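go over whats below:
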Amino acid sequence: MMPKNFYFVILLGLVSLFSDMTYEGARSITGPYLFYLGAGAAVVGFASGFGEFIGYGLRLFSGWLADKTKKYWGLMFIGYALNLLSVPALALVNSWGLAVLLIILERTGKALRTPARDTLLSYATFKMGRGLGFGIHEAMDQIGAFVGPLIVALVFYLKMGYKPAFLVLLIPALIALSLLTFAKITYPAPQKFEKGFLELETKGFSKSFWWYLLGMCLVGAGFVDFPLIGYHLEKTSILSKDWIPILYALAM
């Protein structure tokens, strides 16, 4: 019989699988969708770029807040709700301004919930091994990220359009939130999985770390987010909108 912490890792992996299915499915078409709503390339670049900035920068605060308050589940529920429900809400807007707001809210939700979720995962993987536990979680995460855009591509293949595509993504969003609720009820205190603590000795960072960090900053600075790529693919008709989410799925 598998230990409880293993089941908890699988359960959070399923939450991430259906979550990624939702928001990565949406991200595969947000660029073309903004074009459809009349936005220009600068707007798409701002929405995706600022959204990513919020999605990562806000984690400094949400991580501190999770450590300070220990309200891991609360932050996760708020974050996942924002992250996931912003996606089907895109089907309800008719202006690119509101769409941009929802895109940024989606990234804000991810920023709020990720540090809290990873903390609970770290508790659950204490005995089974961090690498194995996070590896399982990431694998399930990537499955969802691959399947989500394919679902959107299927909607387009059936000639249903953008708004039905976003509405269809409500299904995995609700499944993810239901699984999260089940996880909270079943394992209300994952901290108990980690008995004892590790003492870490810190000695600062080596020069190689700072060179690595500089390299990653340069990579990030030159990175073009897929919504902007998708926008130009749609605008120039290089690919039909049916194939744009498939291209994104392959990039996963």
Observations:
- The two ends are 33 Å apart (CA to CA).
- The CA atoms of residues 83 and 106 lie 4 Å apart.
- The chain has a mean pLDDT of 92.
- DSSP finds twelve helices and no strands in the chain.
